[in-house]
């Protein structure tokens, strides 16, 4: 049995546009996963499919090894507050917070009250009159308040100022520490959010470009700079390093690669007078987004 949420052969097309292409992935239970990748690469679509806001063209979603839809109670185990979440036009913040617990048997009233206070959400304001950041804060309150076994956070900080983002990170850790569960969060603020993540999935053009524990993912990106001829020789000798992006300036090249750096490979680079430095996770995600890389 695989505890967690799995997708098998998941494909989503809109007309002749294949947004997700035969995805096979498992998000292990009880971890915080980062879902990363360039704009339009299918992160929101994947979350929508995993939470049944949208239906796949092909493939299936399994919750703890059971096909989604087998048991109506499965829906209560998931929480996905979409970025463009629709609320009843007349609803005030307090109406949304009054109704939300009826959807989630695991609702955590104490966390909700504290978060409303910390984000200074105005209870008597109609939701559609909230600012962009306040709408994000409300979505965070609902997502963390739900304490759902599988919680999806889709760029949860849109419009949040740096102080509010800090509050979000603190509260996410606090809530997760009190009740570990499966949290899948998409974000473009990769390096800022990285300390929260245990596992990383990078999508590229609707396919999985990388899935790895955070520390491994952080060690796989390298920036190598030096003579283009020497660099090409090094890359030929070290085929476990895949070139993702390249900039050339005269005879000099700078390449971003994906692959584990062995001591022998590091020494070979030194001998060839190549400068090797680690690429941040943000840099690696950007390079994957600009390459045609697909996970093996
Ligand atoms: N309802 C829809 N009809 C047609 N195309 C859609 C629909 N929903 C999403 N798409 C397309 O699917 C692709 C992936 O969109 P998605 O929102 O999943 O990307 P994303 O990775 O979340 O992007 P971002 O980082 O910009 O939020 C985009 O090209 C988008 O235009």
UniProtKB/TrEMBL annotation:
CDD domains found in the cross-reference section: ABC_DR_subfamily_A
Record's keyword terms, sorted: ATP-binding, Nucleotide-binding
InterPro entries tied to this protein: AAA+_ATPase, ABC_transporter-like_ATP-bd, P-loop_NTPase
UniProt superkingdom: Bacteria
Domain ABC transporter: 5-230
Gene Ontology molecular function: any one: ATP hydrolysis activity
PROSITE patterns, sorted: ABC_TRANSPORTER_2 (PS50893)
Protein name in UniProt: Putative ABC transporter ATP-binding protein
Organism this protein belongs to: Nostocoides jenkinsii Ben 74
